[in-house]
Specification:
Largest sheet: 6 strands, mixed
Oligomer: single chain
Number of strands: 11
Strand content: 15-25%
Strand order of the largest sheet: 7-6-8-5-9-11
Radius of gyration: 20 Å
Structural class: alpha/beta
């Protein structure tokens, strides 16, 4: 863990460096980009790295990126605080890991909302740009959102037999990334266990948890295909979202043409990463089946019963946040209205 003093020291250096480069009229803007994902993960090679390439193609020598992937500078769960404190100029904020600072943004992870990455990303992107309460959360953490990313609907992945009915979830210990995912697991009658994604393989291998709710695109980067025995393909267990954001103080220093390029590249990345993930879902399912993994669909009755339980999560989420004085119902209604129009 990075100490507070190191946070402040590194943040001061990063901020000072960018100010000096701009105030001196230098041709190159130096920008630090930090991720917590391993090499080959869709967030990195489908999102962050293509975004940097897009910006570089447009700006040439005007921009220079200092790239720190895979938690080299800031750990995955500390990305939001690292951005807020100025250690990094830009990070993909894992929304589920920042639930305490971005509680309303967790609407993007609720179950039963969206059937594809394109629908989820398109809807969440519009919500970020249109909803005042959502925008206020980013302002509070000193962040400017540039592009959004959300996986296709999450599936149940297990080291045991396929969990084909609601009854099969009872008593199971399922890894949760926190936030709304915990509420979904509890609604299904299972026990959530918050385990960092870096520890997921070992936790499943040792039986600390026997299942996880995840996108198919996250299986291979963490080698889960080596130990999983079953995976669903038509579940609607919510998703996990990330928002690539830039420190607001750093953003304010950027020339307008640079801001425009970064925003335009962000919109392009949203489209490309969504199309890629939706296209990959079918091929990944076939690949896992070829490994002898039970790749299954819930039948109509089981899906209806499971989805009925998951629908309760939306009301529970609203009630919990409204109790804290947050406009959760209005945000959920806005998100559902956007999604209905997609």
């Amino acid at each position: 863990m990075i100490s507070t003093s190191r946070f402040l020291a590194l943040g001061a250096l990063a901020t000072a460096g960018s100010v000096l480069a701009l105030s001196a009229g230098a041709q190159s803007i130096s920008m630090s980009v930090v991720t917590g994902s391993p090499p080959g993960h869709i967030i990195s090679d489908g999102g962050v790295e293509p975004w940097m390439a897009c910006v570089t193609d447009a700006l040439g020598d005007e921009i220079e990126f200092n790239y720190f992937p895979a938690g080299q500078l800031v750990a995955l769960r500390e990305l939001q605080s690292g951005l807020e404190n100025g250690i990094a100029n830009a990070v993909p904020i894992p929304v589920g890991y920042a639930s305490d600072r971005l509680p309303l943004n967790n609407v993007s992870m609720l179950p039963g909302l969206g059937t594809s990455a394109q629908q989820i990303i398109g809807s969440y992107s519009r919500l970020i740009r249109e909803d005042e309460a959502i925008a206020a959360e980013f302002a509070e953490i000193n962040a400017v959102p540039i592009w959004a990313m959300g996986f296709p609907p999450y599936q149940i992945i297990s080291t045991g037999p396929a969990m084909r009915t609601l009854a099969d979830f009872s008593g199971r210990v399922i890894r949760s990334a926190g936030g709304t995912m915990t509420l979904s697991i509890e609604a299904l009658g299972a026990a959530p266990a918050e385990v960092t994604v870096a520890d997921l393989y070992v936790s499943m291998e040792r039986g600390v948890v026997d299942s996880t709710i995840s996108g198919l695109q996250s299986v291979k980067p963490y080698n889960l295909q080596e130990i999983m025995r079953s995976v669903s393909t038509n579940g609607a267990f919510g998703t996990f979202t990330n928002v690539f954001a830039i420190n607001a103080d750093f953003w304010a220093e950027l020339p307008e043409n640079v801001q425009t390029v970064m925003s335009d590249c962000g919109l392009a990345i949203e489209q490309s990463i969504a199309a890629r993930m939706d296209a990959e879902s079918g091929s990944l399912a076939q690949e896992f089946a070829a490994l002898g993994i039970d790749v299954f669909e819930f039948d109509a009755d089981a899906a209806a019963e499971i989805n009925g339980r998951l629908a309760q999560v939306l009301d529970g989420w609203v009630e919990r946040l409204e109790g804290r004085g947050l406009p959760a119902r209005a945000v959920l209604d806005h998100y559902q209205a956007i999604m209905a129009g997609q």
